[in-house]
Amino acid sequence: MKKIVLFLFLFTIFLTFSSASSLTLSPAHLNFKGIKNERICQNFSINSNKEISLVGKTLWEKEGEQDRILQNHKLNSSSLGLKTIFPEKIVGEKNSIQEFCLISNSSGVFHGVLLYKIESEPTQVGIWINATIFSSKKSQEESFSEVELKGNSAKENSLVNNFEIFIFFDVIILISILFLFKNLFKKTKNEFTKK
Amino acid sequence: MVWGKNLIVGIIFSLACLGFVFAASDTMHVNAQISPSSVGISVPNEVNFTNITCGYWKRQKIEINNTGNVDINVTPSLDPSYSGLFENLGFSKNSPGVESTTPPSGEKVGNYTFGIPKPEDYRGENSKPIYIYLDLTNYSNCSSTSEINESADVIFTAVEA
Q1: What's the structural domain count of chain B?
Q2: pLDDT value of position A15
Q3: Residue B10 is assigned to a structural domain of this protein
Q4: Is position B115 within any domain?
């Protein structure tokens, strides 16, 4: 009996060590919009199937480039004038919520990746970072108002379309009723003529 | 009599049409709770190439799991500072051929990225088999007297496709 318990215990330990770790980060991408020298932050979550230790880093593309090819992300934050604040080492966590903050000393469009690797294991997962940094509050507001204007026109269009559909069906119903009454009138007239 | 019948049909038809118009203006409250996107993988911790001699190549089949809820691209890579035997490591989606002295068909580590679609079932996993091979068909640093025993870390990086 003792031997069976010992065997099961050792087998469980063996399974724990040999099984692959899974690492999941959420969301799959982070979008930032802000102005120069403003600290902008967002939360992300880390989940694994067991307690793990992670090492984090960011890599960036040249300013203005926005493809999702990992090999093209070679620059570090400081070379682009970006300051990133996030936990670079996470020890013994299974599920956690972390914060990623970004401060840029120049305006532009930046594309990067936040990578977390499980220590001493081959698994690494990345979250894409899309950051649009405006030179001033005014230019940011101008950009937002442009979007709002476009949004309104789209809304109006949808209202117009709904109204057109409503009118179309209304006209069909009206024609049907008129047609019925016309037939009714014709038949009544015939009956009177026969009499 | 016919006049009365037609009148009833007319009224019923009109009411039916009005019914549709009124039904169109009714509202149903719909709620949804949408989870954020997530990107994740699960990779085996170890692959062993045993009984291989210089001038030949050997393959191993491994399973990579997409544990998130978006399509992903996975890039295997060696540490940039590494140089040695495992620079001859390669990857292939399909079987890279029969193990022989003819070099396998596939991409060398560092040049290869493969996609894994998101799982069919929400919160499920999508597993993809990948062939990893060690190509020593043209490897010249083989010792004729002693056995080579080398290891290296391959990192599998997953990002949203």
Answers
A1: 1
A2: 39
A3: no
A4: yes
Give per-residue pLDDT as tens, B102-152: 778 888 998 899 999 999 988 789 999 999 999 998 888 776 667 778 899
Nearest alpha-carbon partner for A53 in A102, A111, A9, A96: A96
CB B89 within 8 A of CB B78: yes
B20, part of any domain: no
* Amino acid at position A43, single letter: N
Tens-digit pLDDT profile for residues A22-57: 999 999 999 999 999 999 999 999 999 889 999 999
**Does residue B60 belong to the interface with chain A, where contact is any CB pair within 8 Å?**
no
How large is the ipTM?
0.77
Is A104 within 8 Å of A37 (Cβ atoms)?
yes
- What is residue A11's predicted lDDT score, i.e. its pLDDT? 42
**pLDDT tens, position by position, A50-83:** 899 999 999 999 999 999 999 999 999 999 999 9
CATH number at residue B130: 2.60.40
Domain around B136: 41-160
Query: Chain A: which residues have CB within 8 Å of chain B?
Result: 18, 20-29, 45, 47, 49, 68, 70-71, 113, 115, 117, 121-128, 166, 169-170, 173, 176-177, 180-181, 183-184, 187-188, 191
- Chain B positions touching A184 (Cβ under 8 A) are 3, 6-7, 10
